[in-house]
Amino acid sequence: MHRQDDQTQMPIASVSSLLGIPIPTIRSWERRYGFPVPSRTLGQHRRYSLDEIDQLRMVRDEITRGHNAREAVDVVRRSTTEARPRTELLDRFLVASMNLDPSQLREILTEGTEQLGVEPTIRDVALPAMREMGSRWKAGVCDTAHEHLATEAVRVWLARQSAMAPVLMATLSAPARSRTSTSRTVLTPPPTVSGMKTVSAVRRTTSRVVSRPSLEAEMSRNVSSSAPSAS
User: Fold this and answer.
1) For the domain with range 1-82, which CATH number is right: 1.10.287.110, 1.10.1660.10, 3.10.290.10, 3.40.1170.60?
2) Among 205, 202, 228, which Cα is nearest to 137's?
């Protein structure tokens, strides 16, 4: 697991508030299934890393889809192993955001594009990062400077992908595309992103860059199901 700096370690009470999962439930999952097992302070207080917070979020979401707790943990364990490169990119993006490092944010998004492709980087890095930064802002873990820096990094990256959309569309779509359709894609400007409206902007840009309705539907479901509880 990628080592987290102290800034990204959260106590169980903050994790509970962030994810809407009761503290006794988080402790029960650790005791019964050994998942996740956070580090502890000298006083034996739990401290959760970004990876572990994301694992708890995924277990919660699997339970809302109908799995019992044991099944949900098994699903998340498998997906965590399979998605390790994507998880590491997301982890690094969040750390860079908290460290206010714009050059590192750009590097991570570029690396994601090269390693995973545009579609997976949007779905598995950009969208989760924006949801997480919004959750942290609501929980008081970060301020507007962290949020705006992450948002701007994603906005610039999306603008670059939007400008490249004709090339991507030619690769992903049927060979025959009308000249008018391509021109519309070129002339459509990237969305203006303000604050945490980024998630909807990502979805709009994705529809142009990837042109896959099924992905759009999938991301919409993920945004709804992964939103932190207001309680």
Assistant:
1) 1.10.1660.10
2) 228
